[in-house]
Design brief:
Porin; alpha+beta; 23 strands; disordered N terminus
Amino acid sequence: MQLLLLASVSRATPDVGAILRPEAVVDLAGDRIGEDPAALHTWIRAFAGDETDRGDAWFLEARLQHHALFGGDVEAWYELGLGETGFDGRLGGPSSPVRLRIGALRERWGRLDLLPVLDVLNPIDARIGPLVPSQWQRIPIPMAVAQIGSDKIRSETVLIPFAGADRLWLRETDWSLVRQGMTASFWNQAAGWEGDDQTEWINLTQQLAINSLDLDPSYRRGQDAATNGNSLPQALLVNGEIAQRFELYGPQFDVAVVAGLLRSSFPQAQLDDGLRQYLVTQTHPGVVELVNGELQTADGALTYAWPRTFLTGLEASTLIGGLQVRGEGSYTSDQVVRMDYIRSTTVPQIAAGVGIDYVRGSSLQITLESRWQHLLEVPVAPLVLAKADQIQIAAGLRAGLMAERLTLQLGGAYDLSFSELLLRPSLAYRATDQLQLELGAILLEGFATDAPRTLIDAITYQGGPVSFWSQNDSLTFAVSWIL
């Protein structure tokens, strides 16, 4: 209703448009049985917005994404929802120093693009890994941002009324934590574990293996989505988040201090201790004991928590000659870290990053960034997809050729702690002002650790994220159509 009222006093015709981007992905390697050798991901954004007579603005964005995976079976689904939608204006008139943005928003902290430290306010969509376009990686959520200040100093308060969760697939996709066929293979191997009621146990595990192979994809995705939101705090203001930012602008620099009482958008998952012990020892209980044990576990075999955390940080940027230098650092009181055999905990963490940009008009841009993350307390249990100290470097190159009709981009990151490399080259041709064709690739290499082959490998993995998904090297072809 508020948007309709604002539209009624808008100037002339609102800005309306849409962007359609289908992207085909082809994996030529054939690294494992059950993977999807091809996929088609389609992203559509339709948007409208305008300024009112008093200088305020309203904006509306609808999003549709469709995904089709072509493997042993064809799996396809779509999602329809809101993108960034809301109101941005001054309270009390055009000359008021108080400004309010409210709606479904993405609010970005920090100055680093490739290896961010402070970009933590919005949940992440990681269901197809680095193939998610940058505009879709951070999920818009209900949020209000109140600003007050001048050209030299500004205060900004962020209120996130409801808790949000990252999105990821847990099973049976190329980018899930448990890859295709791992669950069935696990149950087949578990049939040989020692324990009571051996005949009943073998029959049970064989049936579970069959069930995992026959699981309907729509039902599986629904289960994954429900698990991702398991025990998420109820949508009450008392469960929300609040953050504060102060920013100072100078002639050649700007600096900001941030702090917030936030909530982790990645869950602290914990497998029942008794079941974990069976995984470690590769023994099994009697079938009756297993069923009774699950019934006696009030919270279920797997429990989730969404811990609060206090975060504070500093970000700054300045110009030195022809270079822009950016930096940011943070302290997090309760960072969720994963450990082996499906357990996790929270530990304090500090992180820092620095970036340098060189820009020559619109024809050349070079970016270099680095990031260091350090856990102030290291859990006794082995970490999964993390280290006590992690150092990464990243670089990006963008070159415009043929009067900006041809664009060459090369992005890459190397993790010194895990010895792994990610490269994302692309070549785009702008056929018209509305149509762009893009050929690219995603290359992942773990030099120290191979990708997991079994479910036990996955839940005890000692390598990094790039090594974990290193079997997903692919060629990509995308078409972007601006309407």
